[in-house]
Write a structure and sequence with these properties.
Layout lengths: L1 H12 L7 E2 H11 L1 H17 L9 E8 L5 E11 L2 H70 L4 H35 L10 E2 L9 H10 L2 H23 L3 E11 L2 E11 L8 H49 L4 H9 L5 H32 L5
Parallel strand pairs: 1-4
Antiparallel strand pairs: 2-3, 3-5, 5-6
Helix pairs in contact: 1-4, 2-4, 3-4, 4-5, 4-7, 4-10, 6-8, 7-8, 8-10, 9-10
Length: 390
């Protein structure tokens, strides 16, 4: 156990020796190797291809009749025909096809963004667990050292059973926290490796992205909103519903059928053209009204989503500023404290009891862990706020 703790502390005290990996590198791995990403790309391509299939006219029809009479008479007829919608319908279908293709692209981009955001948040959590491992490993090593010291002092009669039990409880608590952190870290690494398409990377060298200044709220909100593929999808849905109103109006106009007929009768051959018209009195009833209602609904959803997006951004921005201020204040306070060496000297000099020592240790380590939590929460908030860059 001591060798494990020593190794942990050596890693924690020599971060410059690590071959550091940035979060962007992991996200690139997810982009290129994730099976979810591969499936998403194929699905988006299929949907865009399917969108183009609805804009063409109906298939032509071919009929051939061969009739026999009672006295060896025969008659045959060949008919070629094509049904044609009112011309404005094809313009509306072409526009709807383009919108459907854009909608598939934006919905695919939205899902891609969600996958990459999940991966980035996992990276941030793993960096937090890596740093937590260093602190908890240091605390466990210190608890082991004190326990050994009081065990020897118990053997020589220089310590009482209460202090020995307190040191033992502190050691067990430190070990439990360390092992729980390791379990959480292993689960997050497993999930991230799954997103990366497999592997057994422990991501121990992973680091946060370089800090970046926050732009003004108005400028950043515009980027946040414009880069939201979900809003673009809702805008596409509204545009498509409007075009559907135009299409249904065109489909309420007469359809035409043109064709060519060739008759192979006993009395000679006859050929010519045929022309027909279909008047949609019943088939498209209320479709325009329904499309208008869908348009109003799509417009309401888009306006609601824009309002929610603006509120979500403001919440993230205010949270980022609050976390930044809290982090700077706590970091400044911790830098002014001497921490563990002073406590060790005070305990050895008998200026504080072991109970007081452990109370101070708890406060000291809790403050350092809180700083790590603030770092993690700040990075997670920035990741959500800048997700439009993914």
């Amino acid at each position: 156990m001591k060798r494990i703790i020593t190794g942990i502390l050596a890693l924690g005290l020599a971060p410059a020796a690590w071959a550091q990996t940035g979060i962007d590198e992991v996200l690139l791995r997810v982009e290129n190797r994730s099976r979810e990403m591969q499936a998403l790309r194929e699905e988006t391509t299929a949907r865009k291809t399917e969108a183009r299939t609805d804009k063409f006219m109906a298939d032509p029809s071919v009929e051939f009749e061969h009739l026999w009479g009672g006295h060896g008479e025969r008659d045959a007829e060949l008919t070629l025909s094509q049904e044609v919608d009112f011309p404005t319908a094809y313009g509306a279908r072409n526009k709807i096809a383009r919108i459907k293709s854009s909608l598939a692209e934006n919905e695919g981009q939205s899902t891609r963004q969600q996958i990459l955001l999940e991966a980035k948040l996992l990276c941030i959590e793993i960096v937090y667990r890596n740093r937590q491992r260093t602190i908890l490993g240091e605390r466990l090593a210190n608890a082991e050292r004190l326990f050994e010291s009081y065990r020897k002092r118990m053997e020589t009669g220089d310590a009482n059973i209460l202090d020995y039990n307190k040191a033992d409880l502190e050691r067990l608590d430190a070990r439990t926290r360390y092992e729980l952190n390791e379990a959480e870290r292993a689960a997050q690494c497993l999930r991230l490796n799954t997103l990366c398409g497999g592997g057994e990377d422990d991501f121990s060298e992973l680091t946060y992205s370089a800090p970046r200044p926050l732009p003004g709220p108005d400028e950043l909100e515009a980027l946040y909103t414009d880069g939201d593929p979900e809003l673009r999808s809702l805008a596409d849905a509204l545009d498509m519903n409007r075009r559907t109103v135009t299409l249904n109006r065109a489909l309420s106009l007469p359809r035409f059928e043109v064709g060519y007929r060739h008759n192979f009768g006993a009395e000679g051959r006859f050929k010519g053209f045929q022309f027909g018209m279909s008047i949609p009195l019943f088939e498209n009833r209320n479709k325009v009204k329904a499309a208008k209602a869908q348009t109003l609904s799509a417009d309401a959803r888009l306006q609601s989503a824009r309002t929610n997006s603006a509120a979500e951004f403001r919440e993230l921005y205010d949270r980022a500023l609050a976390l930044q201020r809290s982090r700077e204040a706590l970091e400044s306070a911790l830098q002014m404290q001497n921490g563990l060496p002073v406590l060790d000297k005070s305990l050895e000099a008998g200026q504080i009891t072991l109970v007081e020592y452990f109370d101070q240790i708890e406060t000291f380590y809790r403050s350092r862990e809180t700083l790590l939590e603030l770092d993690r929460d700040y990075q997670s908030t920035l990741a959500r706020m800048f997700r439009f860059e993914l």
